[in-house]
């Protein structure tokens, strides 16, 4: 189907169901700024609620085989951008090194959303501060593949988050590449209510320890506290060389939490988001240790 009109509340929107990646990239290039990719649609379909206009054209990418696949290799896992949260959690559930990503994907939003929402959409939606999978992938040192009909490039997720709102029309997140390794990982989130709530704050971590139980490497990421998820590098550095201990990690986190500005919203004030970080660090470290 190409340019089939769909009546919306404000305008007529066309949807092109792309049978291949090449077709999708061609259509996105042709539509330019008037077009956008459509996968799970869990963010786009709520545009009217946020008083945001729909695009004139959407390119449906959910039927493209390579975008819906997960390839588990000896050195890395390659995740297609249209893989749903539910499928991602199921595919990696037997790999302890990815506990952080499994938890992020399996606990986000609610079961119905997890069956539809895609990992690519989670990363590419720049106005969604509470995305669970973003800090999880940050702590796993993930890379993002971006494609256009002129070719593709890879970049660190940190860099992608910096530029995602300014990506030129016609470019599409097609794959997330996550390196494998021997590390302990965990994901801690604080929703205001138990079911279907966005988290007030998120702490994701990936830590390796030596034979004496001392931290050898640490990558900790914080989400939902500020408009964009980011690494907590000062906390990483403070834990290296010390025994991995939840209470100690929480004390250090409390000392360093002032570096976060926090964001105010209707669900939680900025100060509260920052104040819960030490407790989430404690929970994440305890989970990584299996406590």
TrEMBL record:
Q: Which UniProt keywords apply?
A: FAD, Flavoprotein, Oxidoreductase
What is the name listed in the Swiss-Prot or TrEMBL entry for this protein? FAD-binding molybdopterin dehydrogenase
Which SUPFAM superfamilies does the annotation name? CO dehydrogenase flavoprotein C-terminal domain-like, FAD-binding/transporter-associated domain-like
- Organism expressing this protein natively: Bradyrhizobium cajani
Q: Which superkingdom does the taxonomy of this entry point to?
A: Bacteria
Specify whether Cell wall biogenesis/degradation is a keyword of the entry: no
Ranges for domain FAD-binding PCMH-type come to 8-183
Residues in coiled coil: none
> What terms describe the molecular function in GO for this protein?
FAD binding; oxidoreductase activity
């Amino acid at each position: 189907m190409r340019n089939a009109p769909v009546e919306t509340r404000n305008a007529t929107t066309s949807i092109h169901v792309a049978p291949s990646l090449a077709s999708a990239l061609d259509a996105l290039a042709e539509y330019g700024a008037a077009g956008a990719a459509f996968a799970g649609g869990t963010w786009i379909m709520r545009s009217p609620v946020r008083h945001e206009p729909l695009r004139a054209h959407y390119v449906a990418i959910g039927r493209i085989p390579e975008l819906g696949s997960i390839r588990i290799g000896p050195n890395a896992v390659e995740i297609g951008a249209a893989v749903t949260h539910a499928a991602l959690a199921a595919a990696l559930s037997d790999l302890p090194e990815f506990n952080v990503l499994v938890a992020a994907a399996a606990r986000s939003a609610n079961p119905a959303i997890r069956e539809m929402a895609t990992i690519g959409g989670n990363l590419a939606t720049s106005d969604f501060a509470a995305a669970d999978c973003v800090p999880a992938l940050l702590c796993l040192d993930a890379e993002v593949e971006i494609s256009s009909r002129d070719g593709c490039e890879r970049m660190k997720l940190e860099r992608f988050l910096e530029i995602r709102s300014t990506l030129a029309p016609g470019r599409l997140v097609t794959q997330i590449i996550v390196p494998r390794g021997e590390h302990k990982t965990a994901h801690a989130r604080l929703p205001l209510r138990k079911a279907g709530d966005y988290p007030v704050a998120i702490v994701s971590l990936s830590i390796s320890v030596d034979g004496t139980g001392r931290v050898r490497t640490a990558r900790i990421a914080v989400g939902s506290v500020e408009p964009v998820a980011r690494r907590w590098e000062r906390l990483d550095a403070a834990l290296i060389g010390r025994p991995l201990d939840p209470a100690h990690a929480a004390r250090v986190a409390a000392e360093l939490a002032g570096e976060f500005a926090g964001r105010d919203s209707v669900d939680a004030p900025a100060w509260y988001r920052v104040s819960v970080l030490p407790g989430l660090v404690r929970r994440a470290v305890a989970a990584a240790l299996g406590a």
